[in-house]
Structure formats: C-alpha cells, structure tokens
Automatic annotation (TrEMBL):
Gene Ontology terms: biological process: L-arginine biosynthetic process
Name assigned to this protein: N-acetyl-gamma-glutamyl-phosphate reductase
GO molecular function terms noted in the UniProt entry: N-acetyl-gamma-glutamyl-phosphate reductase activity; NAD binding
Gene that encodes it: argC
HAMAP family: ArgC_type2 (MF_01110)
Taxonomic superkingdom: Bacteria
EC top class named in words: oxidoreductase
Associated pathway: Amino-acid biosynthesis; L-arginine biosynthesis; N(2)-acetyl-L-ornithine from L-glutamate: step 3/4
Function as written in the Swiss-Prot or TrEMBL entry: Catalyzes the NADPH-dependent reduction of N-acetyl-5-glutamyl phosphate to yield N-acetyl-L-glutamate 5-semialdehyde.
Chief location of this protein within or outside the cell: cytoplasm
Coiled coil, from the record: none
UniProt keywords, alphabetically: Amino-acid biosynthesis, Arginine biosynthesis, Cytoplasm, NADP, Oxidoreductase
Organism listed in the record: Sphingomonas oligophenolica
Start and end residues of each Semialdehyde dehydrogenase NAD-binding domain: 4-104
Length: 305
C-alpha cells in the first residue's frame, strides 16, 4: 500500500523542490494535475480529496481555499503557507521542538525565518534562561528565493538590486508564530533582509547576557540548546566559533539547520545564530520531513544533509 500525495502548487518554488524530492519513491504515489487544470478548483477538489496527504505550496488565500475544498475526514494536510501557523486545530510542524506531527490531521509547516529563531530561542525559554517577558530582537538575511516566484523574477530582472532591507511596518507575517511557539509574552522586533543569493539564510538573536535576569552563562545557553537537539540528525549545534558565516550566491540545496552561540570574552554578550536553506529546512525539506513522519517512513528519507 502506497501513500497518495497531492502537491497543490506543485510548480511554484517550494512545490517544485518537494516534488523533486518525492519523485521515484516507491512508498508514495504522486497525484498530479497538468498545466491546464492545476488552478481549476474542481480538479483541485478531486485531487485533494483523493490524497492521503495533501501538501499546500500556495499563497495564504489559496491555502485557505484548498483546506475548504477538502470534504472528507481522511485527507491529511501539510500547509507550507503561513495561513495556519497559529490557528486552532493545527499542529505546528517542528518535530525537533516536540510538536506531535505523527498522528496529526492538519500540520502547518514553520516559516523559514521562524525555523531559525525558534530553534535558538524556544529551548532557552523552556529552560528558564530567557524570561518569557524578555524583549527579544531578531535580525535575519534570506536568499531571494524566500520571496517565491515574484521576488525571484524581480531580483533576476534588476541587476542593480544588491541587498534588500524590509519589514518596516513591524508587522511581518512570521512574528505571531515566533512569539507563540517560543512562548514569549511580547512579539520580537524582527528585521528581515534579502541578499542577492538564490537560497540560504542567517538568523541572528542578540542577547545581552550580563543585563538579563540571572545573568545566564554562555555555557548554560549552549548547553540548553545542545540538550534540546541531542540526537537530531537535521539540527547541529556547533561548539566551534567560525570567524564568519557566508551565504554562497549559488549554494547547493541542504536540509540542515546549524546553530551557533558566539560570546565575548567577558561572557556578558551573546549572538545566537542559525544558518539554514530557506527552501530546505525552511520550507521543502521540513515538508518532506513532516510527510515522512506522518506516513510512517524514515524521517530522513529524501532529505539532503
Ligand atoms: N520560498 C520560500 O523560501 C518559502 C515559501 N513558503 C511558503 O510556501 C508557499 C509557496 O511559496 P513559494 O513556492 O515560494 O511561492 P511561488 O509563488 O513560487 O509558488 C506558488 C505557486 O502557487 C500557485 N498558485 C497560486 N494560486 C493558486 C491557486 N488558486 N490554485 C493553484 N495554484 C495556485 C502559483 O501559480 P503560478 O505559477 O501560476 O503563479 C505558484 O505556482 C507560500 O505560502 C510561501 O509563503 C514557506 C517557507 C519558505
Ligand atoms: C525573502 C522573503 O521575501 N521572504 C518571505 C518569507 C518567506 C515565506 O515565503 O514565508 P513563509 O514561510 O511565511 O511562507 C517574506 O518575508 O515575506
């Protein structure tokens, strides 16, 4: 018995990368719609209801519509969009942080920036090293594929566009899931940026350790993050401290999530840093990982580590 999978939005940036990882798998049967029918609601309704698991790689409004098209109790959903990440009845799809994806009917894939932020911050809030009411900031740089087809076309059309700083309304769609799933009392101040590189991401959370309640030590911070991800194949916590972290303009895809804790000599300041591929653990890799867990397959099948 194979598991039938329909990717709604299969020719978008995220959908294509998921499809590439699933093609050829003997344990899955892919349901596909041709170009003429891929946006046809009736055809999508049939495909969604025929699937054991539907993966939504759509803009938020189309993802909400897709869920409404499902009228049977068995089709399970992995939604890559940000439509359901703090919605009731949905499981947040970050298994390394203890979210129970295996038996879930509705799974919301974490956002790319929140993946790095939550990996760094959630274990520290849980360990009591960051108070829930502490005012956090998060600075991040993404590859331009993070903006989907529209941003890819814009960057590749405009050779003068070297770097993009944005999110100045302080209402980025990823802030609610960062706050909720880290267990914070206040939304973090989020400064997202885009580099002229196709894929890749660096997410950074500065911590003034010496000014925080209890003055947590760098060792305690690193130790809590290590404990949280012990035995996780996708997440690596590094003890080495490279002088720099780079995003290559033509980096190869990866589903890894790498975490670092940089501190000064006095141990009273830290920069927590996560590096990932926005299209890997930030989107497609996480979706495939969740699919594997939901389908009862080896969680690492098809992942690039
Ligand atoms: N890119 C990334 O790094 C990440 C993306 N995501 C999320 O994943 C989702 C997809 O993003 P991404 O792949 O980047 O976006 P893209 O714009 O690259 O792809 C979206 C796809 O959805 C299709 N589509 C739009 N409306 C409909 C509809 N009503 N019915 C069927 N198909 C439709 C589009 O069609 P057409 O080709 O005709 O435009 C396109 O192929 C988004 O919600 C995004 O926020 C999440 C994490 C990271
Ligand atoms: C570089 C860039 O534009 N990134 C997107 C977020 C990536 C994405 O599509 O996010 P979801 O995880 O929410 O689906 C943005 O800032 O809107």
């Amino acid at each position: 018995m194979t598991v039938s999978v329909f990717i709604d939005g299969a020719v978008g940036t995220t959908g294509l990368e998921i499809r590439d990882r699933l093609v050829g798998r003997a344990d899955l049967t892919l349901i596909t719609l041709d170009e003429a029918r891929r946006k046809d609601s009736a055809a999508r309704r049939d495909a969604l209801n025929d699937a054991d698991i539907a993966i939504l790689c759509l803009p938020d409004d189309a993802a909400v519509e897709a869920v409404a098209l499902i009228d049977n109790p068995h089709t399970r959903v992995i939604d890559a969009s940000s439509a359901h990440r703090v919605a009731d009845g949905w499981t947040y799809g970050f298994p390394e942080l203890g979210h129970d994806v295996a038996g879930a009917l509705r799974v919301s894939n974490p956002g790319c920036y929140p993946t790095g932020f939550l990996a760094l911050v959630a274990p520290l809030v849980r360990a009591g090293l960051i108070p829930a009411a502490w005012p956090l900031t998060v600075n991040a740089v993404s590859g331009y594929s993070g903006g989907g087809k529209a941003l890819i076309e814009r960057v590749e059309r405009d050779a003068t566009l070297g770097f993009r700083d944005y999110g100045f309304s302080l209402a980025h769609k990823h802030v609610p899931e960062m706050q909720r799933h880290a267990g914070l009392a206040h939304p973090p101040v989020f400064a997202p940026m885009v580099a002229r590189a196709f894929r890749g991401m660096i997410v950074e959370v500065p911590l003034p350790l010496g000014a925080m309640p209890g003055k947590p030590s760098p060792q305690a911070i690193l130790g809590a993050i290590e404990v949280a991800f012990a035995g996780c194949a996708v997440v690596s916590v590094h003890r080495d401290r490279p002088d720099e972290l780079l995003i290559a303009v033509d980096a190869a895809p990866t589903d890894r999530l790498d975490l670092y804790v940089f501190t000064n000599e006095a141990g009273d300041q830290a920069r927590l840093v996560a590096t990932l591929d926005n299209l890997g653990k930030g989107a497609s890799g996480a979706a495939v990982q969740n699919l594997n867990i939901m389908a009862g397959a080896d969680p690492l099948t098809g992942l690039v580590l």
